[in-house]
Amino acid sequence: MTKQAFVTIKNAAKSYGKLEVLKDINLTVERGQIVAIIGPSGSGKSTLLRAINELDPLSSGEVWLEDVQINKKLPHRQYEAHVNQVRQNIGMVFQHFNLFPHLTVRGNITLAPRMLKGLSEDAANKLAEEQLAKVGLLEKVDEYPSRLSGGQKQRVAIARALAMEPKVMLFDEATSALDPELVEEVNLVMKQLAEEHMTMIIVTHEMDFAASVCDRVLFMDQGVVVEEGPPSVIFKNPEHERTRNFLRKHL
Ligand code: ADP
Ligand code: MG
Asked: Which stretches are annotated as coiled coil (predicted)?
């Protein structure tokens, strides 16, 4: 038997009606690897990322985390339980933070560990404080999201995802909605995770960040992976004209 990668995407396809958004995507990510996905708007990057944790289930193909198939076909009830279970292993960070506005930072971070993992209030609080300290925001623990800057909100969103102790983190343009001066503080948190060998799949428009943090870069266009390779190759010496065209506009 061949060794199973940490994250495996096999023959992934997704259509919305007649629109084929993903066409036969194959991707493997090893434990501790950091993969960047780049490509023009509308190329299917978010759809692919959202397929990994079943937010946008694939039309066909398979998604695996280690030896567990995430997009298993199951009767409704079993499917719900299965998805709740596997999502605990997959942290996701969105462009627009998606914090719960009516909960404090503490409430945002402790909710899932309490509800899904059954942690006590004390244990969840301790976890929240640890994760907040890690992203440098312990002093904001009792603040509401509306009183935080965009960069702080995104760091809280990262702390919230980390509090579930996920096996893999997905980032969908985590810094695209931020004012330029707030991008670096979020990038620093992601760099710190990289140093800790967190497995990450990062959709980004920031080519410098991708080049400095990621082990591999995938260039997607119109629902296909046009090419992939180490940043040194993709950014400096890409094989395909479509990649060169894209990079000309974004480097
Ligand atoms: P990207 O993240 O690379 O910008 P997306 O994955 O968001 O691209 O979108 C890929 C394509 O799928 C786009 O053409 C988009 O309009 C389409 N799309 C995404 N979500 C939906 C949806 N829920 N219904 C219909 N079309 C969608
Ligand atoms: Mg997107």
From this structure: none
